[in-house]
Amino acid sequence: MQGAGFFTINGEIMKSFLPLNIRIDNKKILFVGGGKIALHKIKTVGQYTRNISIVSPEIHDELHQMGLTEIRKKYESSDLKGFFLVYACTNNIDVNRRIKNDAGEYGILVNVVDNRELSDFISPAVIKQDEMTIAVSSNGENVKKSVEWRDKLKSILQQSDF
From the centroid of its chain, how far is CA 5? Predict the structure, then answer.
């Protein structure tokens, strides 16, 4: 079955994600959650912007050292106001679902980390060098394979004279 943003794999309807680059100049990005999951995603997003805020009662030391905007408290829906993109990075699926629903009411796209079904967008594995970026995605289905492909491409690039 095709159309309406869905396709099938082995008869199962799947969400599809369009690969694109989004302009984020002067756009505010919010991460809800301040642990290792957020740290991993922020390391990637931080290559493109420093306009990142974190809402979490506790924030990982390495995140704290990055000098980003920190709001040390439990999540509330009003925390989303004024943000362009949101990453739900808590280890609580109920809170992540609430963030997803609240973001929808504000018209904000959300990535529920490690849950492609709840996400409006996914983040690919990336290689960034100067103005060039290579993104590898499995449509959110096989993150390990995406990372393997990215690492192989990175190795090839490092061995060549690009």
Answer: 20
Give whole-number Cα distances, 25 to 70, 95, 130, in Å: 20, 28, 17
Break the chain into its structural domains and give their ranges.
21-123, 124-162
Which one-letter DSSP state was computed for residue 120?
S
Phi, psi of 94 (to 5 degrees): -65, -40
The sign one gets for the Cα dihedral 111, 113, 116, 122 is positive
Closest CA to 102 of 26, 30, 24: 30
Partners of 133 in the beta sheet?
128
- List, for residues 65-105, the tens digit of each pLDDT value: 999 999 999 999 999 999 999 999 999 999 999 999 999 99
d(CA 15, CA 32): 24
The pTM for the full model equals 0.85
Read off the tokens for 32.
């809800």
Q: What is the CATH number of domain 21-123?
A: 3.40.50.720
**Whether 19 contacts 32, CB under 8 Å:** no
Residues in the chain: 162
How many whole angstroms separate alpha carbon 36 and alpha carbon 14? 28
